[in-house]
Specification:
alpha/beta, Rossmann fold, 7-stranded parallel β-sheet, 3-stranded parallel β-sheet, 13 strands, 34% helix, 16% strand, globular, Glycosyltransferase family 4 protein, Glyco_trans_1, Glyco_trans_4-like_N, glycosyltransferase activity
Amino acid sequence: MRIAQIAPLFEAVPPKLYGGTERVVYSLTEELVAMGHDVTLFASGDSVTSAKLDAPWPRALRLDPDVRDWVATYNLLVEYVYRRKDQFDVMHFHIDYFPNSLFSRQNVPFLTTLHGRLDLPEFAAVYRMFPDVPLISISNSQRRPVPDLGWAATVLHGMPKDLLTPQPVAGERDYFAFLGRISPEKGIERAIQIAGTLGVKLKVAAKVDKADAEYFKESVEPLLAHAHVEFIGEINDAQKPAFLSGAKALLFPIDWPEPFGLVMIEAMACGCPVIAMRRGSVPEVMDDGITGFIVENVDEAVAACGRLDMLDRARVRGQFEKRWTSRRMAEDYLRVYQRLIDAKAPRAAVA
């Protein structure tokens, strides 16, 4: 199958540090190539892939100080892909609503995976303009604000089986981990509170976006002065196995409808249990009592931390291998691709 994967331009594929969408695109692309498909990846020029790389922009926008209007680069990307559309059996976009108008007016099958939140009214208005565009949700809970869109399937994320693996730990696991991004909805303040209540160190490996810089300075930075908090900053994939394997648990006390939460399966890959708030996709991703505990509030999170010894870290890893590999994700997508190709074929013949 000739497949185009169209990635965001903000980060390279794979991302050098933080970047959930780009990480998923990389895992999917590499797995499709490994399965024998002819894949072209449209992404920034500093991306690395075993697929064919076609770069409409030379480097990730996050690292390009010359770009002041990122929307212009996305218009370029969409037109760039459009001019090559007839070279593919299916085109898979990961750039939200940008392809909808142009690609709805041509015959090559395409689909878009929505990676972010959909509970904003302007998003609903835009997507409802294109009710026939095949959309992929990354959890069933992601659909709740807009259940009436053209949903083709839910495909849960996956990652390479051996990218992150459990590492041996010398001595006792004496800290909790917080990994990902610092923002109000991600729950860093609650994580600090949970660890502080238990008298356990919290190691924070997280990115601070420009959009969250004020929140970080005013609300989070003062909390980092607590003796039990160690702020590490962003870490890469090579650093994650040791970081997560050495933790008692990953604290994921979110306060928003998380569409997926890739960090949860990253922890599982390392055999690290997760303490997560029941928000968004959490009940779909977590196997409560096996890969960690789902809780309703901080008090329940504190209590759940006292039950971590009940969990088998080898079984946590086993659930990752069973549910969350990129091979399973790629197989799920291939079924959707084929269905879309089959549905388009009669129309194309008639035309």
